[in-house]
Inverse folding.
């Protein structure tokens, strides 16, 4: 075994006989680009609403419910898609979330939420993960579109203005504290703070 | 035989004409003005929900107050009750919304409960928002003050 490893090492160490150093460097560079590009393309593809709703678990449950809400259909025609709210923009966070999502694909293969009933049973747990994530990052995904600095309170309803100019402005509460269930139906809320 | 058939056919045609006419009778001028029953008219513009956050006067003390804000997307079902996330006893302080009154905590025997009574859970059964539009149908409703002023004898 040791001998084998040593012989491979020898091959790696030996200068190339057939290919020039330039070719090897350039080849490695190009291969790197292709690999990196492919990786990011795969990331892009999996970062679309089409991909998210290609499995029936998402299409029949959360997507269907979202269609009646403000982020799907509204007067201005500006929309939020699944990744807008669920996938961080920052690269490292994105990769972290994607790795977490791989576990969800695992769940798909083994049918953890393959029926509406199973989904509803799991819903509280899934929702809590999202609440915890948004609470921890100060509702970063909401703020990617809704920038507090540019909110004109005078153009908001009185109820909105009163809450936004106090609890939100002081940092005491973040978007998800007050706007749970903004895009989907809610799970059983017994025991959740403020409900 | 042939004659019978002919008569039947004529009668059929005649009654069909009568039915067709009665189906397309002029419509009574109620909610929908003009036209005949079968005619499709241009739908009226949908009025906006009034969202001024100003409480409205109640017509009599037991009237469920109308909702002074919009309630788009507020779900009330077995899992969650968005209204109570502002109007319940425990959340009213934070939201500064009026707390639902004690009657909402009473069962049918008038016994106050610790949480909202099941018969008061579905808020929109009694409370509705209002639209920015004049009354759809003129009416002779009198509020409690007008009734008191007018005396008991007048309807």
């Amino acid at each position: 075994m040791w001998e084998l490893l040593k012989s491979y090492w020898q091959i790696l160490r030996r200068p190339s006989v057939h290919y020039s150093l330039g070719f090897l460097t350039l080849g490695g560079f190009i291969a790197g680009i292709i690999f990196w590009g492919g990786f990011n393309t795969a990331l892009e593809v999996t970062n679309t609403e089409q991909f998210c709703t290609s499995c029936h678990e998402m299409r029949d449950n959360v997507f269907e419910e979202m269609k009646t809400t403000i982020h799907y259909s509204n007067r201005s025609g500006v929309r939020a898609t699944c990744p807008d709210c669920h996938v961080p923009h920052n690269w490292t966070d994105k990769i972290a979330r994607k790795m977490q999502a791989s576990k969800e694909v695992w769940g798909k293969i083994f049918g953890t939420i393959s029926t509406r009933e199973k989904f509803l049973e799991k819903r509280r747990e899934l929702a809590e993960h999202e609440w915890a994530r948004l609470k921890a990052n100060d509702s970063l995904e909401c703020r990617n579109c809704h920038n507090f600095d540019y909110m004109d309170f005078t153009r908001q309803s009185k109820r909105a203005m009163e809450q936004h100019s106090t609890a939100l402005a002081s940092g005491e509460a973040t978007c998800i504290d007050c706007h749970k269930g903004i895009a989907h139906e809610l799970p059983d809320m017994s025991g959740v703070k403020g409900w | 035989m042939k004659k019978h058939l002919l008569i039947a056919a004529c009668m059929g045609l005649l009654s069909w004409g009568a039915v067709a006419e009665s189906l397309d009778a002029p419509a009574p001028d109620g909610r929908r003005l003009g036209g005949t029953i079968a005619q499709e008219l241009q739908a009226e513009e949908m009025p906006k929900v009034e969202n001024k956050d100003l409480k409205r006067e109640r017509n009599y003390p037991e009237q469920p107050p109308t909702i002074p804000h919009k309630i788009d997307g507020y779900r009330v079902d077995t899992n969650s009750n968005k209204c109570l996330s502002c109007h319940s006893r425990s959340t009213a302080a934070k939201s500064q919304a009026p707390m639902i009154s004690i009657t909402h905590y009473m069962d049918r025997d008038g016994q106050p409960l610790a949480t909202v009574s099941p018969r008061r859970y579905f808020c929109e059964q009694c409370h509705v928002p209002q639209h920015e539009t004049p009354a759809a149908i003129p009416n002779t409703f009198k509020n409690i003050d007008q009734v008191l002023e007018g005396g008991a004898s007048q309807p």
